[in-house]
Amino acid sequence: MAFITSAAAATPLPRLAFPFKSLFGAIFDDSLSRGRQIIALSKLSNEELADRGLRRGDIARHVAHDDYWR
After folding, report:
1. Residues 70, 45: contact at Cβ < 8 Å?
2. Long-range contacts (CB closer than 8 Å, 24 or more residues apart) made by 27-35
3. What is the distance between the alpha carbons of residues 24 and 19, in angstroms, rounded to a whole number?
4. Residue 14 above 80 pLDDT?
5. What is the 3-state secondary structure (H, E, C) of 3-70?
6. Which of 19, 63, 67, 70 has a CA between 20 and 30 Å from the CA of residue 26?
7. How many CB atoms lie within 10 A of CB 58?
8. 63 touches 41 (CB < 8 A)
9. d(Cα 51, Cα 45) in Å, to the nearest integer?
10. Cα(28)–Cα(26) distance, rounded to whole angstroms?
11. Is the pLDDT of residue 11 over 80?
C-alpha cells in the first residue's frame, strides 16, 4: 500500500494572525505579571507595606498606575 502526501496550499492566514497573536500575547503576559505583583504585595503584612509606602487599598493603584490611574 502506498501513501501519497501532497503539499498543502499555503494560506496567508498564519501571517495575518501573527500581529494579533503578538498583541494579545503581550496583553496576556502583562496581565499575568500584574496579577502576580498584586498577589505578592497582598501577602505582605501591613508593616511591610508601610515600609514600601503603601497601604493595602493602594496595591491595585500601585501595580496598574500606568494603565488605569493617570
Report:
1. no
2. 34/63, 34/64
3. 9
4. no
5. CCCCCCCCCCHHHHHHHHHHHHHHHHHHHHHHHHHHHHHHCCCHHHHHHCCCCHHHHHHHHCCCCCCC
6. 70
7. 14
8. yes
9. 10
10. 5
11. no
Contact predicate 63/37, CB 8 Å: yes
Q: How far is CA 48 from CA 14, 35, 65, in A?
A: 48, 19, 20
Residue 1 has pLDDT above 80, yes or no: no
**In the predicted model, what is the mean pLDDT of residues 36-43?**
92
Angstrom distance (rounded) from CA 21 to CA 27: 10
Q: What's the confidence (pLDDT) of residue 27?
A: 67
Contact 59, 34 (CB under 8 A): no
CA atoms within 13 A on the CB side of 30: 10
